[in-house]
Amino acid sequence: MSVSIKGKNVLFIGQVFYDYHTKILNEMERQGANVTFIPNKFHGDGEISNFDFIGLFRRRLMPFSKKRHAKYILNSIKCRQFDYLFCIGGFTITPHLISSIKGLNPNIKTIIYFWDSFKTWDYSKLLSLFDSVYSFDPKDSAEFDKVGYLPLFYTSEYKADASIQKDIDLLYIGSISFISKNRFVILSKIKEYSEINNLKSFIWLYNAESSKGLLGKIQSFIKNSIIADYREYIKLLKYSGSPFLKSDVLKRDEIIGLMKRSKCVIDIPIPNQLGLTIRTIETLALNNKLLTTNNQIILEPFNNVQCIRVIDEDTPDFDLEFVKNDVKCKIDISHLELKNWVLSVFN
């Protein structure tokens, strides 16, 4: 039996990632829920802070930061009753916070969704706190019986438009950081291969180092002093002279416009990630062809070799005909449209 959230009060504690949290909030409201949103703040825990004494200092402060934000959440909701608690990610979530929310709302149903792998952020210890748990990572779902597998979603803007001419053969839009430094090498090879074979490519690789604040720059300086791999990464960015390495981010409407003009979109998740990226889902929603380094996609029920190909990171060559041919890719992933995704989460 399908559960409706119409008229239900939902406490949404979600990670802020571009405007995806807003899209989810708006969809829940469109389905009739009364939603209270509170950001799920990052407090310095996790693997990306492990390199230096600043990371150590932040982790020392983490319990106090979490406690302060939890107090803010509880003070914000103490005069309201909620039917559902919906969380995205760990960060702020602690046993004390969840037990306190349940204490204020004895009949509340608790749900959490992870759009990062436990290998990146290990919040598996939180599973027992929730009635329902979902992850975008099939490996985490297979390892933990309580975790349901639910890929990411696409929003209504990502609908195919046959009236738009597809004048871009290959498209990549993404970012690079130390954890995803493999993207630069792979894209350089793809760019060279495209030029040799007269393919029109558009590659926009945002350099996250270029927009760091003072604390981030200090951390980078320390890492550069003591970590050899990080030094090589910085040299790569500084001296590559690559025309596709950018210092600014494209706007959402610009990205959607470029994707609608593209025949084939490239997807390069971070190393060892099995969960499908949101770019993968959006690409297939637009009926575009997909080149990805993620082998997991061949196990998905919607896999179609006419529209999806896996490329090797070391030698990312691909079949030119796959890119050039006019095969119409219409893969049904309507169950992942945001309105249906929200229904899946609450059912």
What does this structure look like?
This is Lipopolysaccharide biosynthesis protein. There is one protein chain. This protein is 35% helix and 18% strand. It is an alpha/beta fold and 347 residues long. It folds into two domains: 142 residues, 3-Layer(aba) Sandwich (Rossmann fold), CATH 3.40.50; 139 residues, Rossmann fold (3-Layer(aba) Sandwich), CATH 3.40.50. The strands form two sheets. It has a six-stranded parallel beta sheet. Strands 9-8-7-10-11-12 form a six-stranded parallel beta sheet, sandwiched between helices. Strand 10, helix 9 and strand 11 form a beta-alpha-beta unit. It is globular and about 65 Å long. About 4% of the residues have low confidence.
Helix-strand blueprint:
Elements: E1 9-14, H1 20-30, E2 34-39, H2 53-77, E3 84-88, H3 95-104, E4 109-114, E5 132-135, H4 138-143, E6 147-149, E7 168-176, H5 182-196, E8 201-207, H6 214-226, H7 228-239, E9 245-246, H8 252-260, E10 262-267, H9 278-285, E11 289-292, E12 308-310, H10 320-324, H11 338-346
Parallel strand pairs: 1-2, 1-3, 3-4, 4-5, 5-6, 7-8, 7-10, 8-9, 10-11, 11-12
